[in-house]
Amino acid sequence: MKQTLLAGLERLNIELPPERVETVLRFGEAVLEKNKVMNLTAITDPAQAAELHLLDSLSLLKVLPLAGKSLLDVGTGAGFPGVPLKIAEPSLRLSLLDSLQKRMRWLETEALPELGVEARFLTGRAEDFARTHREKFDLVASRAVARLDLLCELCLPFVHKGGYFLAMKGALAREELHEASNAIRLLGGSYERTAEFEIGGAVHSVLVIHKTGRTPEQYPRSWARMKQKPLSQGSRIKDQGSGT
Ligand code: SAM
Question: Whole-angstrom Cα distance, residue 188 to residue 156?
């Protein structure tokens, strides 16, 4: 895991103090260890975990300056991308959100305290927290949670005007962006650019969406309503379901 992480950091041109690299590695190892008894990730190979979890998360360091910013990770799962980013940039004010209590409890009571990493924990559905934490964050990041049109409705309400939503996507990024263009506009966003990284032989895309206006109060709607009538309807190419 260490060799793959170090080689990848060099390729991505990310410089980190050795003690932060060690802490990122300890977190990666803790995820794989806990994965033996709790369903956290489909990836069990340490080198693959270094690429697909650690380096993919850390690539966000190259997208926007994170120092001192508040960042919400929506659908963090086992802590990606939020936790590696907080370790790499300790001044980041990190909040982790997920509806799965078991994973959140592990992060909150075991994994992060053992590493001395601080974060806020929002356990519940993004659609519900969007009411109480509306337009409170400089940045929102999300990976592998939903198709982009639905994800924008879950994430953009949390971003304050002037902030950014960073959607981490794979090979379908361009197609999803096309499909979500109506949703982005309706929710007060504006597509700015795509940052691309080659990690483990595949292209990883980060769609950078600027929050240029307020999100109308009626969004986000319930998950059932979002799925039934996505904001992109009309320009939709095909329904790919909610997970990625
Ligand atoms: N982001 C992590 C990663 O890339 O490894 C986890 C991805 S996992 C496939 C998707 C996670 O999103 C799950 O932990 C699930 O509980 C969470 N999730 C999906 N929809 C959600 C919602 N509406 N509100 C909160 N969490 C949600």
Answer: 8
